[in-house]
Design brief:
By secondary structure, the protein is α+β, with helices and mostly antiparallel strands. The protein has four helices and nine strands.
Length: 212
């Protein structure tokens, strides 16, 4: 839609000299700083995870309860990081950075953490699908929609993406990584996310998945 041009008598006067500089500084101070908001939101996500897990130096909750507690936090915070990136037009960057942060933090606290996620979002009538892998090394991930299969090579702690042409409004996506295969149902016009992760601390081990 084309907006009508402003009428000359409605236009505000342009400030001159020192007033112009003062007005420019005020306008700049009111202008939203996208990068600052992104950083703040990332810090808040990290703080929410850490406070929720009640970390103390070198300690966790009891082994019988800390991994399920961490799992529930992961299922809340990882989708939140994905939504943050979408809202800030950075696609999966926030999710990848947060995944790396979690990996480093959990490793520092004696928890082995592996993660695979698959993020889908529409590109007009097509579906853009990105795979993120923190599986401990390079990974081959096969994606299938209908009769079309794409094989993605994903570097350790990295991502790779592909485009599926005109899937249905509702489509099934089959994800195969190593000996694990799963099929999820996504909506083409909705940003969607699938997570699979493992947590291991000593003899205690937990794995879980989520599709949203």
């Amino acid at each position: 839609m084309t907006l009508p041009a402003a009428l000359s008598h409605d236009a505000p006067a342009v400030p001159q000299g020192r007033h112009a500089r003062d007005a420019a500084r005020c306008a700049a101070s009111r202008r939203p700083r996208k990068g600052q908001f992104f950083l703040l939101a990332s810090i808040l996500l990290a703080a929410a995870f850490l406070l929720g897990a009640s970390f103390l130096p070198g300690s966790f909750r009891s082994p019988a309860t800390d991994l399920p507690f961490l799992s529930e936090n992961l299922k809340n915070e990882l989708p939140a990081a994905y939504n943050l990136g979408l809202n800030q037009s950075s696609d999966v960057a926030a999710l990848l950075n947060f995944s790396r942060f979690l990996n480093a933090t959990l490793t520092d606290h004696g928890v082995n953490f592996t993660l695979l996620w698959v993020a889908a979002r529409n590109a007009s009538a097509d579906a853009n699908v990105t795979v993120g892998s923190l599986l401990g090394g390079n990974a081959t991930v096969n994606l299938t929609i209908g009769s079309t299969t794409r094989s993605l090579q994903v570097a350790a702690n990295g991502t790779n993406e592909t485009l599926f042409t005109a899937p249905g409004a509702v489509f099934n996506l089959t994800i195969v990584a190593g000996d694990r295969s799963t099929t999820v149902e996504f909506l083409r016009n909705k940003a969607s996310l699938y997570l699979f992760f493992r947590l291991q601390r000593g003899a205690d081990r937990l794995q879980d998945e989520l599709a949203v």
